[in-house]
Write a structure and sequence with these properties.
Layout (H helix, E strand, L loop, with lengths): L4 E2 L18 E5 L5 H10 L5 E5 L11 H19 L3 E4 L2 H14 L4 E4 L3 H7 L4 E6 L1 H4 L2 H10 L4 E6 L1 H11 L6 H12 L9 E5 L7 H8 L4 E3 L2 H11 L12 E4 L7 H9 L4 E4 L1
């Protein structure tokens, strides 16, 4: 499905001939939600070297202030790009993108792709004119989301809900643990209980974690509701910005986790399924 994306300004692009074929695409998220984006990037660019970075030490972003998120994301990406020299950075996190993208662009000199809530395609999909939006608490309150609503859904009804419980539900599911049914039920009820909620037929998953629990949300909301998120659109934008570049995977793709301690084996097993064969702390 189509999505809204934030891409790099033209001044950040580099000639394809100047790119080291082994330079990775760096995908960054607060946790493992960005794996939904990686899955689409693999389909679009199967030969591209990838580093997946999860700021698990900073999770969750949704409960932090805008200043905290902006400073943390810009600082981490500055250090990561200096160390790993990526050809492109993708901020595969709605919260980080809507808050920190401007600051990150001031810090980095590589193409950047961010992601924002897919309100535009949702507005084109809905038949009833009522759209739900599930994101983190920080995302749903952003002025950027207000602007997207005004530009693409001014004649629709947008029902917003910050659902931090879904982030943990998605992380748990990836670890092979049971998904808390209360978190799913609460998110569904929070949308349905708003004025017009009974007519809602489209839901924007405005957090890259949330597609991991789309099946559970679909069961709670019923077959009349369709879902839209940005992963495919992000992958298309990355492919466009790297057109003509050569790829050479000289080392295995890896996952980076911030913080201390061992990365759980359940994570390692799932990461290997996404082609991330090495896991380390950053």
């Amino acid at each position: 499905m189509a999505s809204d994306t934030m891409s790099a300004p033209s001044g950040a692009t580099t000639s394809a001939a100047d790119i080291d074929p082994s330079a990775p695409i760096l995908l960054f998220d607060s946790g493992v939600g960005g794996l939904t984006v990686l899955e689409e990037v693999r389909r679009a660019l199967p030969d591209a070297p990838v580093i997946y970075a999860a700021d698990t030490a900073g999770l969750p972003y949704g409960s932090k202030t805008e200043a905290q998120v902006a400073a943390r994301v810009a600082g981490l990406l500055g250090r990561m790009t200096e160390r790993f020299r990526p050809r492109l950075v993708c901020i595969a996190c709605n919260t980080a993108s809507t808050i920190a993208l401007g600051m990150v662009r001031e810090v980095l000199e590589v193409p950047i792709v961010g992601t924002v809530p897919a309100i535009k395609p949702a507005a084109a999909m809905t038949r009833t004119g009522v759209i739900g939006l599930l994101g983190t608490e920080a995302t749903v309150r952003q002025v950027y989301v207000d602007r997207l609503e005004q530009e693409f859904a001014a004649d629709k009804r947008l029902l917003r809900h910050g659902a931090p419980g879904l982030v943990e539900a998605a992380e748990a599911k990836l670890r092979g643990e049971p998904v808390d049914p209360a978190a799913i039920r609460h998110a569904a009820d929070a949308l349905r209980s708003q004025p017009g909620g009974e007519l809602m037929d489209t839901v924007v998953l405005a957090c890259t974690h949330f597609p991991l629990v789309e099946a559970e949300l679909a069961e709670a909301l019923g077959p009349q509701v369709r879902f839209v998120h940005g992963a495919q659109g992000i992958a298309r934008q990355i492919a466009r910005l790297t057109t003509g570049q050569e790829y050479a995977r000289k080392v295995p793709d890896r996952a980076l986790f911030t913080g201390a301690g061992d990365v759980p084996d359940a994570y390692r097993t799932k990461l290997a399924q996404y082609g991330l064969l090495e896991v380390e702390r950053f």
